[in-house]
Amino acid sequence: MLSSPLPPLDLQQPLDPRFISLERTSGLITTGALSLGSLPVIALVGVTAPLPALMIWALAIAWVVATTGLTWLSYQWPAIAYRHTAYSVGADGFEIRRGVFWRTVINVPRSRVQHTDVSQGPLERRFGLGALVLYTAGTDHARIDLGGLAYETALALRDHLLPHERDDAV
After folding, report:
1. Per-residue pLDDT tens over the stretch 54-71
2. Which residue, 9, 12, 23, 45, could crosslink 86 as a Cys pair with Cβ 3.0–4.6 Å?
3. Rounded distance, CA 79 to CA 114, Å?
4. Packed helices 18-48 and 53-83: angle between N→C axes, nearest 10 degrees
5. The model's pTM
């Protein structure tokens, strides 16, 4: 029988390192779409609007600076976010710690978990990652997502957090 990919109980675990590549890819796709989408607008303004040549050059330089800045941020930020995100699972519940500037600690007692999902988008599938989604009782923060997990780990966490007693069902 294969061992479960469930991480050790009560120890802080980092996300899967492939999270960095996934987020970089996603950020570069977004940067490319924004940059290529804004380029025709800037070109159209440059051609049709009666602007001085200096203003057209300023627009072009601003586009290059913005594209370069977004590209740099898309590459650097995922590694920073990765270092500041961790989770732990225990017999009594689940904890997520994340945040670079504003730190957040989310504790979900196992008794509050109503149901769980594991989701994968196309890029997550390509990188072998998944997101664990917890639905809890209550209205505020009733949905808690933790992306960047190995797909097998997300499935194991989902199974671990499901109720195991027969009298848990309504």
Report:
1. 888 888 899 999 999 999
2. 12
3. 32
4. 170
5. 0.83
